[in-house]
Amino acid sequence: MSLPSDIRDFLAGYPHIEDDPRLNANAEFYANKRRCRPDNLLIDELHERWWTDYDKLEYKHGYIQWLFPLQEYGMNYEAQPLQKHEITAIKADAASMERLQRSCTMMLGFYGMQLVSSENGEIRRADNWAERYRNLARAPHNNLRISRILKCLSEFGLERLNAGFLLFVLAEQTENNQLNTQTIRSSMDRWWANCLRDENERTWVNDLVRKARTDPGFVFTNEAYRAALRRRQETGSFEDGDRENA
Predict the structure, then answer these.
(1) CB-based burial label for 217 (10 Å; 0-12, 13-18, 19+)
(2) For position 37, what pLDDT does the model report?
(3) Residues 148, 68: contact at Cβ < 8 Å?
């Protein structure tokens, strides 16, 4: 099955999109110096006021392009596509990168998950996981949001968080039959699992997902999940995971 066109563009690094040095809205937003539109909030205000306001996070839509900017256009015409020089600027600013991780943590909470380690990307269920999982299953527009979040994290060198999320969802699906709807599986198999620019990791994750889809007896346990993240953190690679979990 061929990859969706937006995934192909993402993996190639958007080579046909030129940088415009005059545009700095995303860098200024992440520096807490520009208000997002249309919600008119600085990023620190958004984090503070919306952290557990799940109705706002569900029914508002413009904020997601500001929190997780991409070089491709989104649905909010008041948001600016991410510029290549902004990626460099945001990555060089520790406060901006901390805010990006806070944005990720906020959205994980919205999806019923809690970040255990920003070092290796480990995630566990939040206390309100059952309610939030139900919302994710019945509101498929969040699948598009997750694709955006994963692409954005990759742009800023945070693919360890992508891998932590992807493998956690796979463990929930195979061990606990959670987050296992056809819509979520489709988004994961075609989009989410391909939001990794590291080819070796993308291949390893996709092979594991494929095994889960084709082998009814295969279970990727939470223990195997944590072991895979530790292995990546200690050795820089997921390799040997298939032999461990075969």
Answers:
(1) exposed
(2) 97
(3) yes
H helical segments located in the chain? 5-11, 25-30, 43-50, 54-59, 63-67, 84-92, 94-110, 129-138, 141-155, 159-176, 182-190, 199-214, 222-235, 241-245
pTM of the model as a whole: 0.95
Rg (C-alpha) for the chain, rounded Å, is 18
Instruction: Return the H-helix or E-strand segment holding 114.
Output: strand 113-115
Whether residue 245 has pLDDT greater than 60: no
Q: How far is CA 30 from the centre of its chain?
A: 17
- Kindly report whether the peptide bond that precedes residue 38 is cis, defined as omega within 30 degrees of 0: yes
Task: Report d(CA 164, CA 115) in Å as an integer.
Answer: 9
CB 60 within 8 A of CB 118: no
Q: Are 103 and 68 in contact (CB under 8 A)?
A: yes
Q: How far is CA 159 from the centre of its chain?
A: 8
Measured between alpha carbons, how far is 18 from 40 in angstroms, rounded to an integer?
28
Task: Give the Cα separation of 180 and 229 in Å (integer).
Answer: 22
152-177 tens-digit pLDDT: 999 999 999 999 999 999 999 999 99
Asked if residues 112 and 130 have their Cβ atoms less than 8 Å apart, the reply is yes
CA 243, 218, 165, 195 torsion-angle sign = positive
CA distance 198 to 202: 6
Give the up-direction half-sphere exposure of residue 84: CA atoms within 13 A in the CB hemisphere: 9
What is the Cα–Cα distance from 119 to 122, expressed in whole angstroms?
8
